[in-house]
Design goal:
By secondary structure, the protein is an alpha+beta fold. Helix content is about 25%, strand content about 30%. The protein contains 14 helices and 33 strands. The strands form nine sheets. Strands 3, 6, 7, 8, 9, 10, 11, 23 and 26 form a nine-stranded mixed sheet that branches. Helix 2 packs antiparallel against helix 6. The protein is elongated and about 100 Å long. The relative contact order is 0.14. The mean pLDDT is about 95.
Length: about 600
């Protein structure tokens, strides 16, 4: 390609709303242009790299035996109502109506579409296992889109879905796609951190996220420097610890505590450390799928049933956790098989805890009480064991707290679980080493869905015995835009992008100082020879100053630059974008040398 036939449109300065490197450089290099808030279009030079990322994803999934298809972006609401997510995800979705008044969905994800399409053609166990995928446009109505294509409203994703007859087959499908992911990210030149993660609104289990380190990452990663344990903070666990307290024979004693509301207030009032207090937090839980029949305090909760199964649209719990720890809402929601868990409002707190905020305790509640394992755990036999003694709690009475509290003696709980937010300094659950944290961005997410969608949407096939059976699913996603932006986040300097050879818009750029005379003749010859060898090459035939050309291609990030100038002929200057020094090469050997460099870099990444 010659620049006279291509669109080069660079900017000297970044737009005011571009605050991270990838957003700034994608705008300045002319890769993308903004159409609206959270809406970005790829220009020709950006689309070349975007397409190369898609092709690498496609190639590795095809090698893994996955089958590409293309569902529609606009989907009928009926399939979302079948799965039970029409109401649960309504805030994130764009839901227009067609001229006939039929509710539609602009696809934010594709579980329902793939499940419905497979349902219509699946008849026999002989068709399983199968893994289908798409690379397609999505739309999510982000409240606050930011960081360019890193978190836009319209984006492109690869979605893959496996359908299997049993758990062993699903495990194999999952491992197969996970291996393909690792090859994809290697070819893209990305340093990936694989972490355990929460499945969120998609449901399922066996979740793994593929992250890249980023100072502006949306996720916090908890990592072990010794054994390699890695998890998203939403999922991270740690080794149990103790506050060192011992049982007391002192009876529980109520203490008047006017104007004492927070843990800090209690520390000052009682002269005790925060890890001697038990925080009691009233939580509102949405769509809890656990069966709470017979659970004390859950009698008033209304259970409903639809295609998503049986669940409680709204329920409340008092959650106990040690005073120096923070409650992890995501862990709590996962434990309760709920779509969301959060703090109750003031009126709800009084209704379900019989005390206002600051004085809530487990002594007199109108809802189930559950404990974090920092307070109460279970032994091998399943019996509750108290890990805190001689503690302080809210007395479930306004203006009062209680001391000398012995959990299990002075109050009981329905169940216990791991609800704490792990922080740097906590101990690794696998080896006991001290954990640390990093910020990261999620590029890919894989998890085992089980029968969440196939059951609610009535997908069946005839098994080997001729009986109807329900397949189980795996779900696998890669954000193409995020991946492209993350390559730039990881590979840039003060002058611009430093592309890996696999996804650069062009692999080589030829820059004649002036496109005339012997310089034009040499540049054209190198250009033709590189094209003949299959190298993606750009020839800059613009009538621009050399400095402008060099700045443009440093900004755009083309990996290899060949400069043709009168002063150096019959040699030309060859320079890698990732290196500071150039070398002189005879012009008649330049194409062969450049092709050799390109192929070596591709082999390193693709091998």
């Amino acid at each position: 390609m010659k620049t006279s036939k291509f669109l080069i449109s660079t900017l000297r300065d970044s737009p005011n709303d571009a605050v991270i490197a990838s957003h700034q450089l994608m705008m300045r290099s002319g890769m993308i242009r903004k159409l609206g808030n959270g809406l970005y279009s790829y220009m020709p030079i950006g689309f070349k790299s975007f397409t190369k990322v898609m092709n690498i994803i496609r190639e590795e999934l095809d090698k893994a035996g996955c089958l590409e298809m293309k569902p529609t972006v606009i989907q009928p609401a009926e399939i979302w109502k079948e799965s039970g997510r029409w109401d649960k995800m309504s805030g994130e979705m764009l839901t227009p109506q067609n001229r006939g008044g039929q509710d539609m969905v602009v696809s934010p994800t594709a579980e329902e579409a793939f499940t419905a399409l497979v349902r219509d053609g699946l008849e026999s166990y002989k068709q399983l296992p199968m893994t289908l995928y798409q690379i397609n446009t999505k739309y999510r109505d982000e409240i606050r889109p930011r960081y360019g294509v890193m978190r836009g409203r319209e984006f492109t994703m690869m979605d893959a879905y496996s359908f299997d007859a049993d758990q062993a087959s699903l495990d194999a499908s999952y491992d197969n796609v996970a291996a393909a992911y690792r090859k994809i990210y290697k070819r893209l030149g990305l340093s990936i951190i694989s972490v355990k993660a929460d499945t969120g609104s998609m449901g399922g289990s066996g979740s793994e996220e593929f992250m890249v380190e980023s100072p502006v990452g949306d996720d916090t990663l908890i990592l072990c420097p010794k054994c390699g344990y890695a998890a998203n903070v939403e999922k991270a666990a740690c080794k149990p610890d103790s506050n060192g307290s011992v049982p007391t024979n002192e009876k529980l004693e109520e203490v008047a505590t006017p104007n004492v509301f927070s843990i800090e207030d209690m520390e000052k009032f009682f002269g005790a450390k925060s890890n001697q207090f038990i925080k009691a937090i009233v939580c509102r839980v949405t769509n809890c799928a656990l069966d709470l029949s017979g659970v004390k305090g859950a009698e008033s909760f209304k259970r409903v049933e639809d295609n998503a199964g049986k669940y409680y649209p709204l329920s409340y719990f008092v959650v106990l956790i040690r005073g120096d720890l923070e409650l992890n809402d995501t862990k709590l929601a996962a434990f309760l098989k709920a779509s969301e868990a959060g703090l109750a409002n003031d009126d709800e707190i009084v209704k379900y805890a019989n005390a206002p905020h600051g004085f809530v305790g487990p002594l007199n509640c109108n809802c189930p009480v559950i404990a974090d394992k920092s307070v109460i755990d279970m032994d091998a036999s399943g019996a509750f064991v108290s890990l805190m003694h001689d503690a302080y709690i809210g007395a479930s009475k306004e203006g009062y707290h209680a001391k000398h509290v012995e959990p299990l003696r002075d109050f009981s709980v329905w169940t216990c679980g791991d609800f704490r937010t792990v922080v740097p300094g906590d101990k690794c659950p696998e080896c006991g080493e001290e954990l640390y944290s990093k910020k990261g961005n999620e590029l890919g997410h894989i998890f085992k869905l089980g029968d969440k969608y196939t059951k609610s949407m009535n997908v069946t096939y005839l098994d080997q015995n001729g009986k109807a059976a329900t397949p189980i699913m795996g779900c696998y996603g890669i954000g193409v835009d995020r991946t492209l932006a993350s390559i730039i986040e990881e590979r840039h300097d003060e002058n611009g992008i430093i592309w890996p050879m696999t996804v650069a818009p062009f692999q080589v750029v030829i820059v004649p100082i002036k496109y005339e005379g012997s310089m034009k003749e040499a540049a054209d010859k190198i250009y033709d020879e590189l094209l003949a060898q299959g190298v993606d090459v750009l020839l800059d035939d613009r009538a621009e100053r050399p400095g402008v050309k060099f700045k443009d291609f440093d900004l755009i990030g083309i990996p290899l630059r060949i400069v043709v100038g009168d002063k150096n002929l019959p040699n030309v200057e060859m320079k890698l974008r990732s290196e500071s020094d150039a070398q002189l090469v005879p012009a008649d050997q330049a194409a062969a040398k450049a092709a050799e460099i390109v192929k070596a870099e591709l082999a390193k990444l693709n091998g």
